[in-house]
Design a protein that fits this description.
2 copies of one chain form a homodimer. With 157 residues, chain A is α+β, with helices and mostly antiparallel strands. In chain A, 31% of the residues lie in helices and 17% in strands. In chain A, 28% of the residues are buried. Chains A and B meet through strand 5 and helix 5 of A and strand 5 and helix 5 of B. The structure holds a DNA duplex (30 and 30 nucleotides).
Chain lengths: 157, 157
DNA sequence: GACTTATTAACAATAGTTGCTAATTAGCAT
DNA sequence: ATGCTAATTAGCAACTATTGTTAATAAGTC
């Protein structure tokens, strides 16, 4: 997604107002590679701007998605995750802490055995253990980090 | 997943009873490549056995999944889909009708640019138009089929 | 035939998300 | 600077998919 400045211009051009709430979300999302959920964004935004509503967060995320500035992905962690990286890439999901990382593969895998299916998109989800979790695997069964999107533990996985 | 007969044996061996409801679901799932949802299974099952409860369907699906006879996949159509094909394969989802097809790729794509991520699984979801939908694309904007899992239309896509 | 489990109805509850309303606030074009 | 218009908010309701719960009944299995 583009810079907060560019987004402000784009929003105005689209007839949308550039409010402090939206500007905050622009900043929180820009260059954010943690693949946050709406709720985790809301939590962070609330610290910086008490009173901001979850509804507004959802609204702005929807607006940004419709403008093609955000990609929303569903990787089996229960809620939608938002990705400001709209380039062609894939994702690796840690089964232990739930962290999601961007992944680039050399080329899109070919499709076999399907008659006349017109592929417009291919998305790969890798599952396994991220570096931090595989390092602490076995040694201690606790999480190496207990708060935040990047290394909180996931229940039921 | 194994045949209804084998599953009956396996269920008894696991201390689970082989009830008519379960047998029906065994049959409905065996060699079923439509990737049904719990609800679509319930609909079909209800026609053959009026009175069967959705709860029982979920229960049996859970049992089968725990026994490794079923795979549950989430391909962005809102609800879990169940796949009796537990071999290593991938999926193609039609953006128009929602149909899900099994896909086999020659080899798993390699992972680049991630430090020490231990991959245990890779799942590819292809999106696009299935044969039927790409054939009727443009010509008529209605669905070529209006009921059932395989070619009902999807809202919001 | 006895023991145990499954099924069912009939709910409640959950999580994530969206919709709604009315009142207030505030962006922005002129 | 002002007025038009849109955004935000609180406070809900609602929705979908799923799981949990309970008690009564039915029925597999040894």
């Amino acid at each position: 997604m583009r810079s907060p400045e560019d987004l402000s211009v784009a929003f105005r051009a689209a007839g949308l107002k550039v409010t402090p709430q939206r500007q905050l979300l622009f900043r929180l999302l820009h260059d954010n590679s943690t693949h946050p959920t709406a709720d985790s964004l809301f939590t962070v935004a609330s610290e910086l701007m008490p009173g901001i509503s979850l509804r507004t967060v959802y609204q702005t995320l929807t607006d940004l998605s419709h403008m093609g500035e955000l990609q929303s992905i569903e990787v089996g962690t229960g809620s939608l995750r938002f990705d400001p990286n709209v380039s062609d890439h894939h994702h690796a999901v840690c089964d232990h802490c739930g962290a999601v990382q961007d992944v680039y593969v050399s080329r899109a895998p070919e499709l076999h055995g399907l008659d006349s299916f017109e592929v417009s998109d291919a998305h790969i989800v890798y599952r396994g253990l991220c570096g931090l979790c595989s390092a602490s695997r076995g040694a201690d069964k606790n999480n190496h980090q207990t708060k935040g999107t990047s290394h909180a533990s996931i229940e039921g996985i």
